[in-house]
Design goal:
Length: 191
């Protein structure tokens, strides 16, 4: 899978045209459904009773049941790598190539947001409840937003290709494409 997500009752994985899901995550315990024959999926999330899958050429599909998927228009043809939902803000946010950032309150209507200077590609977006912010990483940049609308670049000067970010209640970790630790910070970090 390009992306894996836990929706509260099952694991979801998206890759290519397929959505795979499992309640255990164990080998041979996965079921598949086809999103769309031409869909090149990279990211998935679940929030507000809606599944959203994103991928190549700005493709966005939504579903309430993981079986029937509806294509949505988002105003970009850039590859979208990742999508996340903030229940605090009631907002979906997707990121991708060319530093693309788009948001939606309902998964149907999407708005392009201004990317901070120097951001060329964003690989992953996550919502941090501990910090009440979206964080996105890609290239040598870490960016953040408390509302999903206005974005800021971190002051952390990285020299590697950031690929993912994760949080617990105490710290944040940013990794490279090969899962090497690039940056680790305590709860009080300032990007």
């Amino acid at each position: 899978s390009q992306s894996i997500y836990w929706d509260g009752t099952r694991f979801l994985g998206v890759s290519g045209t397929k959505l795979s899901y499992s309640t255990t995550g164990l080998n041979n315990a996965w079921s598949d459904s086809t999103i769309n024959a031409g869909f090149g999926g990279y990211g998935i999330c679940f929030g507000n009773s809606l599944y959203i899958a994103v991928g190549q050429t700005g493709a966005i599909y939504t579903s309430t049941d993981r079986s029937t998927w509806i294509s949505r228009t988002c105003g970009t043809s850039d590859l979208l790598y990742s999508v996340e939902y903030s229940s605090t803000l009631g907002l979906y946010c997707a990121v991708g190539n060319a530093g693309t950032i788009i948001t939606s309150p309902d998964g149907t209507t999407w708005t392009t947001r201004t990317t901070p200077s120097g951001v060329t590609s964003l690989r992953r977006i996550k919502w941090s409840s501990s910090h009440s912010k979206f964080f996105a990483v890609g290239g040598t940049k870490i960016i953040y937003s408390s509302d999903g609308i206005t974005w800021y670049a971190s002051s952390y000067a990285g020299g590697t290709d950031y690929y993912d970010i994760a949080f617990n209640s105490l710290e944040a970790v940013v990794t490279t494409q090969n899962s090497q630790l690039a940056y680790k910070s305590s709860l009080g970090f300032v990007f």
